[in-house]
Amino acid sequence: KIRSFEDILRYPNDLYPLLKMKMTTMHAKKHIPSESHWGFCYTMLHKISRSFPLLIQGLHTDLRDAVCIYYLVLRALDIVEDDTSIATDVKIHILMDFYRHLYDTEWNSSFMSILYLTSGTNDHKVLMDEFHHTVFLELGNYQEVIEDITMMVGSVMAKFICKEIGIIDDYDEYCHNVAGLVGLRLLKLFHASGIKDLLSNTFFHSTSVPKSRMFWPPKIWRKYVDRLEVLL
Asked: In the chain, what are the helix, strand and coil shares in percent, each to the nearest 5?
């Protein structure tokens, strides 16, 4: 990230890509849908993700809408999982049942009455407060894919709320389910749109976890430090 004129002089080759990205971002924001419910979704997408709105601009409208909602729903799951102020039993219940409520436009009223977010940004709070605006019911053939991945990711998140990651197999299981399968199911959205031959059995084993909840097996980090907190 370039923060000053000195940085520009030090890394001149980065200037053009940064300017191009800035122009692309401005272009994307100018094309936020005029309908209030879709406008909310794309506005939130721009606020909580730096790169994702740019990456989906070239998709045709219905697939782009589906990918937008796909991202927002899974980000909502992340917000619940990461917030340490939510009681464990409440959090597990929310994560396990999240997929069921995608079809319930009134759910957020009761949901927000038990959910008080203390982590994340104000934009995260707005997303959760207005979750029913994610217009899931307008997505047609894409609904099943999004419901399916929400159910799988939510159940694995709930499992590891109570289960400490102690071995590499645990780490791989968590990463594969909350990151790898997300990529695989994203390909299914493309398939549902009529684009064929994109599905793969490739597994993805990478994810990012907030510093307050480090999912690193001791077998790995004890090679370098005695206490995990040293790495925070």
From this structure: 70, 0, 30
pLDDT in tens, 26-54: 666 666 777 888 888 888 888 888 778 77
- H/E stretch holding 169: helix 168-175
Residue with tokens 């929310």: 94
Tracing tokens 């927000």 back to the chain, one arrives at 112
CA atoms within 13 A on the CB side of 168: 5
Sign of the torsion formed by the C-alpha atoms of 129, 130, 134 and 138: positive
Asked if 132 and 106 touch (Cβ cutoff 8 Å), the reply is yes
Q: For 115-171, what is each residue's pLDDT tens digit?
A: 555 555 678 778 877 777 778 889 988 999 999 999 999 999 999 988 877 788 888
On whether the CB atoms of residues 138 and 163 are closer than 8 A, the answer is no
